[in-house]
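Build the 3D complex.
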Amino acid sequence: MRLRLRNIFLVYFVVSLVGLFCALRELGEDPFHPPDLFKAPPIPPMPPPDPFHPLYSPPDSFHPPRPPPDPFQPPQPHFSPPRPVQKAELVRLSQTLLHVPALHWVVVEDAAAPSALVGGVLAASGVSFTHLSAETPPDLRGRPGDPSWLFPRGAEQRNRALRWLRDTRGRDEPGVVYFADDDNTYSLRLFEEMRSTRGVSVWPVGLVGGLRLERPLVSQGRVVGFHTGWRPERPFPLDMAGFAVGLRLLLAHPRARFDPRAERGFLESSFLGGLVTPAQLEPRADNCTQVLVWHTRTEKPKLRQEEQLQRQGRGSDPNIEV
Amino acid sequence: MGAASRPRWTRRAARAVAIRSMGVSSAQHTQCSAAHRGGNREAGSVSGAAVPELSRGDSSRCVVSPGLLPRESLRFLLAAPAVLCRSALLLLGSAPRPLQTCFCNGWVVSTGNEELWAQSVLEMPKRRDILAIVLIVLPWTLLITVWHQSTIAPLLAVHKDDGGDSQRDLAAGLDSKEYCLSDRDIVEVVRTEYVYTRPPPWSDTLPTIHVVTPTYSRPVQKAELTRLANTLLHVPNLHWILVEDSQRRTPLITRLLRDTGLNYTHLNVETPRNYKLRGDMRDPRIPRGTMQRNLALRWLRETFNKNNSQPGIVYFADDDNTYSLELFEEMRSTRKVSVWPVAFVGGLRYESPKVNAAGKVYGWKTVFDPHRPFAIDMAGFAVNLRLILQRSQAYFKLRGVKGGYQESSLLRELVTLSDLEPKAANCTKILVWHTRTEKPVLVNEGKKGFTDPNVEI
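Done.
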C-alpha cells in the first residue's frame, strides 16, 4: 500500500469507525480483561500473607488457644510502604480470625526482621499469634516492574513457618495447618470444616483460576478429579487457600516444603506431592459443593497525588501509620 | 490510473459514490443512479445497493454487498465516508458531473472528465472543504461523546419499577411491613424484618450504631458481605441496614444475613437501569448507592420517632472498605456529626479534616478540590440519629451532583463546618481504609460458563 493521502484517509476512517464500534460494544458489557490469569498490579515483590494453622481438636478435652494461621508480610514501609494496604488487610483478617476458637496465627514477613507496623496490628488484634520473618533471596525476588506471577510468592516464608512448627510442636500434637493469604475472604464455617482434618482436606475456592470457583470433584466421598480451567495437568490443581494439612502428617514428613523455584501454579503441588496422593484427599464443604473461601484481591490504591506531593516535599505525615 | 496527481474533487466524489453504494437509503439510491446514468452499463444491484461499473475495460467488476464477505465489507467501510460525502454534496444542490467510480481490487478508482474537475475545484472549494472537515470530525465527536457519557441517549425514560412483587415471607414472629411508595418515576417496596439473635452483645446504655450498606450483585458480593459481617459481629449494639440495588430482595442476601446472626434490616430499591443499552447499565447520572442510602434514611425516619427514640448513630459503610473496631467506638459519642481521616482516598495515603488547636474543624487536608463544603469521603463521617430525624428533608442529592460532592449534598443540610466533631485523636489516626477489591478475572468461564451456576459464590 503506497503512502498516499488517499490511503491515509481511508485508514483513518476505518480506524475511527472501528473505534466507534468498540465503544458501542463496551457500553453494554463490562470490559473484557486480558486473558492473563495472574495479572496483578505491578506491586514490588511482596509475597502475600500466608496463614499456617494448627488446630487442636480432640472432641472432649480442653482446647488450648493454639492453632495458627500464618500470614507473612512484606517489608516495612520506609517512607511510603511498598504495599500500602498491608495494615488494612491484616486488620480485616484479624477481625475474621478473632471469631475462631482455638486458633494460633503465625505471621511471617518478607523482611530482614519483624516490623513494628505488623507487630502493632497483631498485638492489638487480640488473636494469639507468632510473628516471624524470612527474607526472599534477591534472585528469587522480582524487580519492581515485574508482574507478580513471575516468581512464586511466599514460598520462603511458608517454609519458615514450617520450620517453626517442626521446632516447636511435639510429634503427636493434634492440629491443622492452613495457609491463608491476607487478601482472601474466609467464612467462619471454613475453619470448622477444616478442624477434622487428619491427612489433607480440600474444598472449593471461589473466584480463582479464571473461574467462578475451582473445586475437587468428589464421588462417594473420595476425590476423583479436579474441576479447574487452568493447567488441569497439575498434580494438585488447587489454590493455596483450598486445602489444610493435619499437623501430625506434616511432622511425619520432615522434608515436605514449598519449592521456591517451582513453575507458576505448581507451588501447591510441590508441597502436597510430598505428603499425599490425590486419591487420599479428604473432601469437605458438603462434598466440595459449597464455597467457603474466596480468592479476592485488593486493588492497589491510587496514590498519584501522594507521589506528586512527595516530589514537592509536601507529602503526608509519615508518622501517621496507614 | 494516475491516482497520484488526482485533484481533491476526485477523491471526495469517490468516497461519496462508495458510501452511496452501501445502500444508505433508497431515495439517495435513485438520485445517485440518475446521476450515474452516464455510465456505460446499468448499475448492478446487490441487496439494494447500486454501484456504477467501470467501463474502462478493466476486468474488475465492481460489486458491493452489505457485509456478506469480509473483503467486500472492508470495501464497504472504505467506501462509507466517500459515499456519504457524495450524497451530501448532491443534497446541497451541487450537481457534479456523472462520475463513474467503483472499486477495483479494493482501490477507489475514478474516471471522468478532467476539465470538469478543474472547474469544480475552482468553483466550490469552500463547501466541500467544510463538509470534509465536518465528516472527519463527526466520528470523533461521536466517539468522545459516547465514551464520556457511556450512554447513547440521555433522554431515555427512566425505567419504572412496579415493585409490587408478591414475595411475602411472613415468618412467625417477624414484623413485616410492606407498602408501595411513589417517588416520581420510581416505585419501591420497603420491607423490614427485625431479627434479634445471639451476640454481638446488646447493652441498654450504649447508643445503637445503624450501619447503612448499599450493595449490588456482582461476583465478589457474597465475599465482601461475609467479611464485613465478620467485622460487624464484634461491635456491640450494632444494627446493619443492608440495602440491595435490585428489584427484589435476593435469596443470597437473605440467607447470608440470617446466617450471620447480626441484628439487621434488609431493604431493596433498584437504581433505574438504562434498558436500551445492551447489558444492564444503570443510569450513570445517579451516583452508585445514592438511592439505596436515601431509602435507608427514609426507613429510619419512618421507624423511629424523633421525640422518644433511643440514641443512635448513622454511619454509611460501603461493603469493600476496611473498618477497625476502634472506629465504631469513636463514633458512638457523636452529638451531631463527627469526622475522621480516611486512608486511600483522593489519590493520597489519607485525607483528613484540618483541626485547629481548639479542636475545631476549619478545613480539609485534601488535594482533590479541598474547597468543597465537606471534602470528606462517605466513610469519614457519622451522624447522630436525632439530627437525621429532625432534618427530615435531608437526603443525598440524586442528580446533578459533581464527583466528590455527594457527601456535601447531605451534610450541608445537616450541619455547618464549625459543628463538626473531630474524632480519632483529633484526626491523627487512621481507623478506616478505603480499600477496593479487584474485579475477578473470569476468563476461563467462557461464553457459556464453565462452572456449575447452581453453586453460589
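The CA atoms of residues 91 and 124 of chain A lie 9 Å apart.
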